[in-house]
Specification:
alpha/beta, six-stranded mixed sheet, three-stranded parallel sheet
Length: 295
C-alpha cells in the first residue's frame, strides 16, 4: 500500500498515432503528467521543495507557506501541504481559471487574488510583500529554488530515458517557471548529450497558461539559457487548436500548455529525418473547461 507522496512520478509515455509529420520515421511521444495525484507535472517540484525545506529545518510543525502561482504549482503545493500538515496561502492572478481556484480551496489553501492586468509579475510582488509582513511564513519560491529542477533531474528525465530505452533524440518542454526544462536538460547534458533540448514559449501577444516569455527583471533565477538548445515560439490560436485536435484525434484530453508543446514537437519533427521526440503534457483538460477552450 503506497502513501500519497509515493504516487507522484512514473507517469506514462503515450505515442501520438494520428498527429505527426507523416511519412517520416519520427515518433512523437508525450509524457502524461496529468496522471500525478494532484493532476500536473508540478506535483514533482512541490514535493521536492517541501521535503528539502523540511530537511533544512526551514519548514517546521505549524509553519505557513506563502507562494505566488499561476495555478498548477499552487494546486500541487496545497496537496502536499495538506499531507504534511502545513497551512498555505496561495497568491495568484484573479483571472486564473475557476477550476484552479476551487481545487486549491478543496485542499484547504487560502487564496489571495491579484489584479489580472499585473499578470504573474504583480502576483510575485504581492507575495513578496506578504512575506515581509509575516517573517514567520515561508516562501518556497519555485522561480529560484533549485529543488524545483532537481525533481526533474532526479526523476522526470531518467523516466524518459528508461521508458524510451535510450532512444529519445529530442526533448520538448513548455517554459513557465522553467523547472522542468532545466532539470531535464541538466540530466540529458550529463548522460545523453546528443539529446536536443527544445523550449516552447508564446509568441508576442499570445497568452498560454503555463507558458511564459518573462521580462528580464522577472526571469526565473533557476533558468540558464545555455542549457536550452532551441526555443520555438508558439501562437495561442495554434496551441488552442492543437489541444482540441489531441482530444478529437488522439483521445487525449490535455491542457493548453500541452497543445503548445505538441505544436513545438511537430516543428521539431518537420526539421529532422528521423528520431524520437518526447514532449511534456503538463496537465489535463479539465482545468480549462470554464475558459471556453473546449466549448
Amino acid at each position: 500500500m503506497a502513501r500519497l507522496e509515493e504516487l507522484i512520478g512514473n507517469t506514462p509515455l503515450c505515442e501520438l498515432r494520428r498527429i505527426g509529420p507523416g511519412g517520416k520515421p519520427v515518433r512523437l511521444l508525450i509524457k502524461l503528467e496529468g496522471n500525478n495525484p494532484a493532476g500536473s507535472v508540478k506535483d514533482r517540484p512541490a514535493l521536492s521543495m517541501i521535503l528539502r525545506a523540511e530537511e533544512r529545518g526551514e519548514l517546521k510543525p505549524g509553519s505557513r507557506i506563502i507562494e505566488p502561482t499561476s495555478g498548477n504549482t499552487g494546486i500541487a503545493l496545497a496537496m502536499v501541504a495538506a499531507v504534511r500538515g502545513y497551512g498555505i496561502t496561495l497568491v495568484m492572478p484573479e483571472n486564473a481559471s475557476e477550476e484552479r481556484k476551487m481545487l486549491m480551496r478543496a485542499y484547504g489553501a487560502k487564496l489571495e487574488l491579484t489584479p489580472a492586468e499585473r499578470s504573474m509579475e504583480g502576483t510575485i510582488d504581492r507575495a513578496r510583500d506578504m512575506i515581509e509582513a509575516d517573517p514567520g511564513a515561508v516562501m518556497l519560491d519555485q522561480f529560484a529554488n533549485p529543488d524545483n529542477p532537481r525533481a526533474h533531474y532526479e526523476a522526470t528525465a531518467p523516466e524518459i530515458w528508461r521508458d524510451t530505452e535510450g532512444q529519445v533524440t529530442h526533448f520538448v518542454s513548455s517554459m513557465g517557471t522553467t523547472g522542468t526544462i532545466m532539470g531535464c536538460s541538466r540530466y540529458f547534458k550529463e548522460y545523453a548529450p546528443h539529446v536536443e533540448v527544445v523550449g516552447a514559449q508564446p509568441t508576442e501577444g499570445s497568452r498560454i497558461p503555463g507558458i511564459r516569455a518573462w521580462p528580464e527583471a522577472y526571469l526565473p533565477r533557476i533558468y540558464n539559457r545555455e542549457e536550452v538548445d532551441r526555443i520555438i515560439g508558439v501562437d495561442q490560436a495554434a496551441a488552442e487548436e492543437m489541444a482540441r485536435r489531441l482530444a478529437r484525434e488522439e483521445g487525449l484530453f490535455l491542457g493548453l500548455s500541452a497543445g503548445g508543446a505538441v505544436v513545438a514537437m511537430l516543428e521539431v519533427a518537420e526539421s529532422i529525418d528521423e528520431g524520437v521526440v518526447v514532449g511534456i503534457a503538463p496537465d489535463r483538460g479539465d482545468r480549462y473547461l470554464s475558459t471556453g477552450l473546449y466549448a
